[in-house]
Design a protein that fits this description.
By secondary structure, the chain is of the alpha/beta class. The chain folds into 3 domains: about 90 residues, Udp-n-acetylmuramoylalanyl-d-glutamate--2,6- Diaminopimelate Ligase, Chain: A, domain 1 (3-Layer(aba) Sandwich); about 150 residues, UDP N-Acetylglucosamine Acyltransferase, domain 1, CATH 2.160.10; about 30 residues. The chain contains 5 helices and 41 strands. The strands form 7 sheets. The chain has a 12-stranded mixed β-sheet, with helices on one face. A 10-stranded parallel β-sheet has the order 9-12-15-18-21-26-29-32-35-38, with no helix packed on it. It is flat, with a radius of gyration of 29 Å.
Length: about 350
């Protein structure tokens, strides 16, 4: 990367304060600054750190004007920095066409401008939309529909009858549509419950690496539009997630749970079966939700079992006071024993 500060400012529609001919050689994060780089800094502490660093220039908000280094002022510096990352570090685009090692059933429909990588398998009855990228060693089952502008990374498995919308991204080694974990006891054994449903992933969903989404027992497991799922997440059979949910790593959602829109599952959240989650709920890291609970709209839940934030904090504060309470009870018990001994002595003297 070599670009003048003025050229970079033009890309992000910003205003240069200082030498516009200064050459920028890299983009750097605030915690790993390289000499000659442009960095994004917000807040007093970050700005002070940036000024003392080896950075060549700083990307700041329009109201920031005083600094010891050249500046690019923009209305939204974080958004501008993301734009610059995409411009100077574009994704590698695979070659269009079908790799000769791919195995594709004769009746599969391929859209325009698709890229099908090495050793991809696409079974009968499936369709792939326009501008899709299917990377190496992906397996796509029977009667799978994939919309336009969708990217499937290496070693992903998509089971039969799954449906993916437009602008979906699924990262490496994830599995879509596997059987749910459902068994019933019979004569001392665990008998498998058939799973005849499917997975429906709506538009603009991104799914991280090594995440599993099980198909419904009957009906559909649904991942709502705009939802973003991190790595190593488990979504069980018949779950229905609303629009624009966030699920962070190591989260598990058990069968038949439903969520509303704009729900956030922080890292390591565990949700039991048949839970109902309203819109805009936030589940804090490592929260645990018991079966069949109803989480109310807009509340923040913490702890295990998960409680509204105020109750969870009150419970935690009470728990931390237990050692002090034990000491107090011990002192009271000793005082009672002394008083009892004094009373007994007085009675014996009489």
């Amino acid at each position: 990367m070599h670009a003048s500060l003025a050229d970079i400012a033009t890309l992000v529609q910003g205003n240069v304060i200082g030498d516009g001919n200064l050459i920028i050689t890299a983009l750097s994060p605030i915690d790993e600054i390289k000499p000659g780089s442009l960095i994004f800094a917000d807040g007093k502490d970050n700005l002070e750190q940036a000024e003392k660093s080896e950075a060549a220039a700083i990307l700041v908000a329009t109201h920031v004007g005083l600094a010891s280094k050249p500046l690019i002022q923009v209305a939204d510096p974080f958004k501008a920095f993301m734009q610059l990352l995409q411009h100077f570090h574009p994704l590698i685009q695979p070659a269009l066409g079908v790799h000769p090692t791919a195995v594709i059933a004769p009746d599969v429909t391929l859209g325009q401008n698709v890229s099908i990588g090495a050793y991809v398998v696409i079974e009968a009855g499936s369709s792939i939309g326009d501008n899709c990228i299917i990377k190496s060693h992906v397996h796509i089952g029977h009667h799978v529909h994939i919309g336009n502008n969708t990217s499937i990374h290496a070693h992903v498995s998509i089971y039969d009858y799954s449906q993916l919308g437009n602008h979906v991204a699924i990262h490496a080694s994830s599995v879509i549509g596997s059987d749910g974990f459902g068994y019933t006891p019979e004569n001392g054994q665990h008998v498998k419950i058939p799973h005849a449903g499917r997975v429906v992933i709506q538009d603009n969903v991104e799914i991280g690496a090594s995440t599993i989404i099980d198909r419904a027992t009957i009906g559909e497991t649904i991942i709502g539009e705009g939802t973003k799922i991190d790595n190593l997440v488990q979504i069980a059979h018949s779950v229905k997630l609303g629009k624009h949910n966030i699920l962070c790593a190591f989260t598990g959602v058990a069968g038949s749970t439903t969520s509303g829109d704009h729900v956030i599952f922080a890292a390591g959240v565990g949700v039991s079966d048949h839970v109902r989650i309203d819109d805009e709920v936030i589940l804090g890291a490592r929260a645990g939700v018991p079966p069949k609970k109803h989480l109310r709209k807009g509340l923040i839940y913490l702890g295990s079992p998960a409680r509204p934030r105020e109750k969870a904090i009150e419970h935690e504060m009470s728990t931390t006071r237990i050692p002090l309470m034990r000491k107090q009870l011990k002192r009271l018990a000793e005082q009672v024993a002394q008083i009892k001994e004094q009373i007994e002595c007085s009675e014996n003297m009489e």
